[in-house]
Amino acid sequence: MRVFIGSLAVICLLCLSTAARASETPASVSLASLVADTITVTPQSKLVAEGNVFVVFDSRILRAKRITYDRQTDDLTIDGPIRLEDGDDIIIVADQAVLDTNLQNGLLYSARIVLAQQLQLATRQIKRVSGRYTQMDNATASSCQICTENGVPLWQIRARRVVHDTETKQLYFTDAQLRFGGIPVLYLPRLRMPDPTLKRARGFLLPRGKSNTLVGYGFKLPYFIPMGDHKDLTLTPHITSKTKTMEFRYRQKFHNGDVNMTGALTSDTLVKNKARGYIFGDGTFNLKRDYKLSFDIEAVMDEAYLSDYTVSPKDRLDSSVSVERTRKNKYFSAELLNYDSLRPTEDNASLPRFILDLTEERRFFQSQAGGEARLLLEAHTHIRASKTDIIGRDVTRAHAELSWRRRWTLPRGLRMGVVGRLNFDAYTYAQDSAFNKTIAKANPEVAIDMRWPLKKITATKAYELFEPVLQLGWSGNRQPNIRIDESTLSEFDEGNLLSLSRFTAPDQRERDSRAAIGMRWLHNDPRGWASGLVLGQIIRGTKESASGFSATSGLNSRYSDILVAGQIKNDTGLIFLVRGLMETKANVDKIEANATWQRNRGRIWTSYISLPNDSDENRGRTLSEWSLNTGYYLSDHWHSEGNIRYDLSADRTATAGLSLTYENECVQARFEISRRFASSTNLTPSTDLALGVDLRGFGFSGSDTKYTRTCRSN
Predict the structure, then answer these.
(1) What pLDDT shows up at residue 679?
(2) Which of 301-304's residues contact partners 24+ apart within 8 Å by CB, and which partners?
(3) What residue ranges do the domains of the chain occupy?
(4) Tell me: the pLDDT tens digits for 501-528?
(5) Are 36 and 53 in contact (CB under 8 A)?
(6) What is the 3-state secondary structure (H, E, C) of 605-617?
(7) Tell me, what's the pLDDT at 366?
(8) Cα angle vertex 19, ends 15, 21, to 5°?
(9) Mean of the pLDDT values across residues 121-150?
(10) pTM score, two decimals?
(11) 1-104 in CATH: which number?
């Protein structure tokens, strides 16, 4: 019969362990609780607990088959199997042990330690000192699960001595060997590693192999430096026969935001006698009164650096700082931007590099007139670095917009809406002798639209919606002669089919009368099928009112191109989207399509885009491109990814890449190869190879439970 010792067990343990030191007993004593099947006291004054022994002392829990307490030595002799839990993250399993009464000092034999249910350390003998240090001789450490008695883990660290410091959460190895599959691959006389519970520890991270045909072959060895609880710095030297590079990453958390900075400083043989490098950064801060501050930094010391070191495919860099606030019916934004083009065909001095935008918008709801009124105020300026007349033109613009809109539901479900808008614009030019210094204009706009949504439920419980749309609009005809700097690229899509103006900025506005006609159709089947289609066209009163749009925008004639946009989704994981502009003769001008197919073990994503040549959009030739991205789980642990981007207009491959990843409960290994082919902006092709291995169980690397191995008996 199982005996539960409550206060009696506590009294026995206290009397036996503290009788000889009664005068030294502190005011408050931590009491132990003992549960066992039987408890006896021998003639030699030894306390013996046998059968399913369970002891709780502070945060330590001990389970054993038998415990013998010796009053003379004040020690516990424990027979196993033994399981000692020290807090939430340390578990010690042993066959036999001799410990003091508070379970903090002593020896454990044929023992194994499990840290945070991830890292295991096995040894013949464990020595515990002061409850802080755990010393192991001839120990083996691994986070790999072994299913057979004589099995070999995928990786392990063998050391003559291992010391675990629970206070600093560090593991110290002496004469350590790193073995893969039982084969030694690396020897280190001294090695310090963080245990799995430590989130931030100063020291080297695992190296990465990196090879590039331009910069050579080498290793990246990151060094992590914590700087307090809320910031850190990672330095990564990258040295090859052709380059000496120091990469860095700085992160800092504040009570109201965060900052992230990455960059590198390089000296290489590609550009001799010149320092090279880049810096990218961003940050966000929550300010008082609901304001939000954001900044973004992108800078490079030469145009080819990002491409040579495969940092980023960007060929136009933008840096900005902004302050914005969004409240009910109110919005404010102030933004300062700087652009830097890396394209060899563009001159930064003649581009608007410095841009300032101020925006204030408010909404008002009047009970008498109904509907919604809006007031928009904008100020904009852009500055060119060039001092040459006309080429270095600087522009300052002020814009005010007052609008009102309202919607009604008419009989038989017909929906009608009205919107009216009055625009005021003023422009000031500098370094442009061909224009007056200040130009002002006012432009009224009005439109009425009607929709008739028709809904139907089919016999298969599918939901269908058919909605024809008609909009009649008119804008003032007066268009002053001003420079067009902002509205240089206009697109015709579903988002602006019913817009009052399809230009991207107020420096151009649509004129005279026009009509927008279209229809929307949706089909949603509960069995997993869904599809949709949108058609639309703009018809203008005169051909002259279509001036200002580019040749391939689809809007530069009295009868615009027909907008076609559709999508299909089925229950097998296929999603297909397409959007295009079709001439009245059924010739397709612009087209964009992408498809995604995803199943349990893999996915495929592909896209196609075609843009005709258009001098108005600085496109000297037709651009046509196809891209493909794939991912597939070859098994539970092997995953492959591939990508290719093909330039159809030039009939050549632009980029291609392949990666292979192995991942289980104790390791993640990834191999990548990518090829960047020559192009008009990249004259030097290059190939990149990268190899990285992460050993799980050290530091705060975590352990993905989906890869936990299951041992099955035959």
Answers:
(1) 65
(2) 301/275, 301/276, 301/277, 302/271, 302/274, 302/276, 303/342, 303/344, 304/270, 304/271
(3) 1-104, 118-201, 205-300, 315-392, 406-569, 621-698
(4) 899 888 888 888 999 999 999 999 988 8
(5) yes
(6) EEEEEEECCEHHH
(7) 77
(8) 135
(9) 87
(10) 0.82
(11) 2.60.450
